[in-house]
Amino acid sequence: MVQLHERSWGNQTYTGRPTLKQIMDAPVVTIWRPIKEDKQQRFTIKTHKSTDDVEQYMTKLLFRAHIKLPEERLVRVFVNHKQVVVKAVRILFQELPTD
C-alpha cells in the first residue's frame, strides 16, 4: 500500500501528507479513499499515535454525520505494520432524567 501511495502521488502533495519515514515509523497508519468515486482521486494516508485517534474520528462520524457528511472513508488500518479490522462497536444508552 505504501509503494502504491508513493508511486501514485510522486512529488505531488495533499494536506497533511506524511513523509515515507513518518509512514514507516508510525504506530498506526490509516488508508482513506474519497467518498466520491472519481478515477482521478487517489487514496491518502494518515499517521496516528494510537488507535484512539481513529476511534474518536469514527465516534464523531456517528454523531455528526447529519451535520456534515464525510468526504472520505476509512479503507484500512495498520497497527505496528500489521493490518487490523474493527472487531466490535458498542453503543450504550442511558435514560434521560425526568423533571
Topology:
Elements: H1 2-9, H2 20-25, E1 28-34, E2 44-48, H3 51-64, E3 72-79, E4 82-84
Antiparallel strand pairs: 1-2, 1-3, 3-4
Question: What does this protein look like?
Answer:
The chain has helices spanning 2-9, 20-25, 51-64; strands at residues 28-34, 44-48, 72-79, 82-84. It has 99 residues and is α+β, with helices and mostly antiparallel strands. It has a four-stranded antiparallel β-sheet. A hairpin with a 2-residue loop joins strand 3 (72-79) and strand 4. It is globular, with a radius of gyration of 16 Å. The N and C termini lie far apart (55 Å). The model has no long low-confidence stretch (mean pLDDT 87).
Quick overview of this protein structure:
With 99 residues, the chain is α+β, with helices and mostly antiparallel strands.
Largest sheet properties? 4 strands, antiparallel
Low-confidence stretches: none
Mean pLDDT: 87
Structure class: alpha+beta
Q: Helix and strand succession?
A: HHEEHEE
N-to-C CA distance: 55 Å
**Shape label:** globular
- Helix count equals 3
| β-strand number | 4
**CA radius of gyration:** 16 Å
Please report which band the strand proportion falls in: under 5%, 5-15%, 15-25%, 25-35%, 35-45% or over 45%: 15-25%
Order of the strands making up the biggest sheet: 2-1-3-4
Helical content stands at 25-40%
Notable characteristics:
four-stranded antiparallel beta sheet, 28% helix
